[in-house]
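call fold target=DUF2256 domain-containing protein
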Amino acid sequence: MKGIKKNNLPQKICPTCGRPFTWRKKWEKVWDEVKYCSEKCRKNR
């Protein structure tokens, strides 16, 4: 994801809260597995 502007980062929609969330560096290797925007949403699924 180097050289990509912040507004062009991939996005997903959280199934719990319905809000969009963008790619984060810590999710670089597991982006395909990320489903929820936060721990709170993951726990309240």
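return ok
The chain has a mean pLDDT of 90. The CA atoms of residues 26 and 34 lie 11 Å apart.
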